What does this fold into?
Amino acid sequence: MRSPDTPPSIDVTGITKIFGSKTVVDRISMRVLPGEIYGFLGPNGSGKTTFLRMLCGLLKPDAGSGTCLGFDILKEPREIKRRVGYMTQRFSYYEDLSIRENLDFVGRMYGIPKRRQAVDEALERLNLKDRQKQLAGQLSGGWKQRLALAACMLHDPELLLLDEPTAGVDPSARREFWEEIHQLAARGLTVLITTHYMDEAERCHRLAYIASGHLMAEGTVAEVVEGARLVTYEISGGNQPELAARLRASDAITQAVAFGSSLHVSGSNRQLMEAVLGHALDPDHRWKEIPSELEHVFIDLMRKEREENKP
Amino acid sequence: MTFFSLARFVAVASKEFLQMRRDRLTFAMVLGIPLMQLIVFGFAINSDPRHLPTALLIQDHSPFSRGLTRAMENSTYFDVTEVISTEAEAHDLIQRGSVQFVVQVPVDFARDLLRGDRPQLLVEADATDPAATSNALASVQTLLDRVLAQELRGPNEWLRSQPPAVDLVVHAAYNPERISQYNIVPGLMGVVLTMTMVIITALAITRESERGTMENLLSTPVRALEVTLGKIIPYVLMGYFQAGLILVAARFLFDVPMVGSIPLLLAVMMIFIIANLAVGITFSTIARNQLQAMQMAFFFFLPSILLSGFMFPFRGMPVWAQHIGEVLPLTHFLRITRGILLKGSDLSMIRPEIGPMALFAAVVLLIGLKRFRQTLD
It folds into this structure.
């Protein structure tokens, strides 16, 4: 399914959006292939939502160009909207309409043929057939999210843009959600998903990390971790809070974070770090090198971005 | 590709109807406002009040003054509650508001009358509410003529010829439009429409962006025009429903005469409704939430109700207020409604009122749609 000659679902270069004097999205390029689950990560306010809105034709980029499902994002937003399912960060269906009425309304908006049947099927898949007359506003967070996913899938889109779909959803509902996403992707649907959860990021085929509108890293999980060239040590025993405070003061250590009963210390220069650690540790501290994880890398990227763009 | 999909427009409109039906409070407001206002303005407020408390200041006791006292007591407009003898007392009573009128028969009234010197009969009215006093004042001359006819007989009959034997002096404001239920009930239609169209439209559109559903709606292939019309048409229908309610009540509950053409009125009403919807849409593009939309709606509603001639006679307002009033669509719609219903005006007679109203609608609609498109972008 993912052969090199299939045209990419998303292929954009230099996408930029400026609100007032603030550049919210700064020259971001991205290629996502059909059937890929692409994770889009970054701190709050980093421009993820704005980028998604530009992809599906809700916002016009101030600079940059490209295609989404083969259609020009600047000139053919309506063609794109027809083929894209966009799930907003906030539940944005009508809380004062019933589950069925919401699905029916979406169906009418897309002009779905055999609407009744499509809605019935969606309700069945959702397991909400006997609650179809319930108002959407009365659903719990997990059910709202499932309804939203069903609604944005109703018109059989080729690309799903999901903006933090699992925020505030419990772990088992999240797991089910991801199972479904993987099944959809296996059928050839492309998924671009933003998230704050590391475990979710690791479930993506590829991912990108942005901070303050800048693309900081891109690739598979292994590639992103590799690319960061981060060295991480785990320290256990001894007085850790006191040690953490001392280590943070050092330039060689870029982060010292408590993970349960141990302390994870990362930096980019191995020799400098070992020198600092050898000097700072007490005899009752034990330390060993561990592989860097995505979370270490992201925290590091966030810090780097801040340093690079200091006023 | 089509530029307007009827199916999507119908979908948006029927969704709007569904929400309208679910939103019990708004629905109650739509039904309740016309009914409540009908009752308050139609029944409770009587602008042709009778039995107004009156003081008689008699400084000349004569058969004439006794005749006048009797005549006033017999009229339904005046209730003589006090008989006093000094001007200071009279002034005090008026100021405290314990009487509406003071009728003064000055010293030597009877003597001057018989001499043919045309003495003055003074009527002082508490004119703070001109509507309350105008009918009563109008009856004084008739009353006076009757008393004179009775008193001036025999040798004094020559005094009854022209000019009138008594110079009636009235201190009161002139009320140009005699407000009554005939006048108020048709006027209410414009007031209720202003309220509903502006407030409810502004709320309905602001709610959609406040709750985030607008973003979802716009990520579908729907077009701006389909959203706009789909959201507006249900409220236009609701406006007509309210207008119908009031017209029926006016006809059967208040016996308001309907001289002119109702179809003409309903047709002109469309311009008025569009003008108010345009205001509602414009507000919805400025307001960040429903509360702000509500505040802005009141900012428009208050001058409309106060300066349009609904509450107070238009010609009784200062010139600057009249200028503001002339801008407001309600002012013109009131004149049109009253003109058509009460005076039987035809299109040519109401045309001067349609122009300013249509101009207002066009300008505000232009601003509103321009801003609305921006928020959609």
Summary: The beta strands of chain B are 52-58, 78-84, 101-105, 120-125, 167-171. Chain B has two domains: 6-45+179-376, 52-171. Confidence is low (pLDDT under 50) at residues 172-179 of chain B.
